[in-house]
Specification:
Elements: H1 8-14, H2 17-24, H3 49-56, H4 63-69, H5 72-79, H6 85-95, H7 102-107, H8 126-132, H9 134-141, H10 146-149, H11 157-167, H12 170-191, H13 200-221, E1 245-252, E2 257-264, E3 268-273, E4 279-283
Antiparallel strand pairs: 1-2, 2-3, 3-4
């Protein structure tokens, strides 16, 4: 601050344009008071070796955001998200910073390495493991969430989550939760040797899981809705003199492409892609 105004040149040199705009928009109190030292990671502003250590290893968030997270309004919003229960439990663990990252394991006196299990070069905090590990970033860069995530690399886990809630609508926030869960699950598979790398198709499947859960929930909540069994039916040939066509549709969320396939008894196979609108006819025998 300079002469009762923000030092815009200094702020411009220290922050990204997104945060620079928000800082300069903060009104300055006209009443000049003497500055006091305040440790922002303690509700009373007092420094201690314990919370200093937690900040150093990336396991502590600012009390302002902690108090917001512990409010009933936040948890009412969180528990009302239309996501499967296992995702709610996972998100609760993320919010309380108790997923088994290297940093959290060390806090609980579990012998482990200091560096990240995947990239081997960073402290494995919750934020690093879920969003900022160079290996994990690949899973985020092709999503709609990356333009927001790339601006929050200096924030803590709680701050990132609250920031995403503020910037995303409810549907996109649910997709963000499911994507985070999928990233963590695949990370565990790689660490424990059951997978050699991230499977992008599997990550995309988390969005499909959300949609299927929401459709099933709507069916259960509506008494007038008849729930149709999704069990496969035995294929039967059409009566003599009639044709039967079987159709299948697939949709890829990230690329926004769909494909339609149809098979006619004793006839031909259709395959249609939205991309290029290519129509292929393949003849086959029944």
């Amino acid at each position: 601050m300079q002469h009762g105004r923000w030092n815009s040149n200094l702020i411009h040199s220290l922050f990204d344009p997104h945060f620079e705009e928000k800082i300069l928009a903060i009104p300055i109190n006209s009443v000049q008071e003497k500055d006091t030292r305040f440790w922002s990671f303690d509700p009373k502003g007092k420094y201690s070796v314990r919370n200093g250590y937690r900040v150093e290893i990336g396991c502590y968030d600012t009390p302002s955001h902690s108090s917001e997270v512990h409010s009933s309004k936040w948890w009412k919003y969180m528990w009302n998200l239309s996501i499967p229960p296992k995702l709610r439990i996972f998100w609760w663990r993320v919010m309380h910073d108790i997923i088994p990252t290297a940093a959290n394991l060390r806090v609980n006196h579990v012998p482990t390495e200091d560096f990240c299990s995947l990239c081997k070069g960073w402290n494995e905090s919750t934020f690093h493991a879920l969003f900022w590990c160079p290996v994990v970033k690949i899973c985020w860069k092709k999503t709609k969430f990356w333009p927001l995530l790339k601006h929050v690399r200096h924030l803590g886990t709680l701050e990132v989550i609250l920031w995403m809630k503020q910037e995303l609508d409810r549907r996109d926030f649910e997709l963000f939760v499911s994507r985070t869960w999928a990233v963590w699950n695949q990370r565990l598979k790689i660490v424990h040797g059951s997978s050699s790398g991230f499977d992008v198709n599997s990550l995309d499947g988390s969005a499909v899981m959300i949609r299927e859960f929401q459709m099933a929930s709507l069916s259960l909540l509506s008494p007038s809705t008849k729930i149709t069994s999704l069990a496969p039916h035995k294929w039967m040939a059409p009566p003599r003199g009639q044709l039967r066509m079987d159709l299948d549709v697939a949709y890829h969320v990230d690329s926004n492409l769909f494909a339609i396939g149809g098979a006619v008894r004793e006839g031909w196979l259709l395959h249609l892609e939205k991309k290029g609108l290519n129509l292929h006819q393949l003849f086959m025998q029944s």
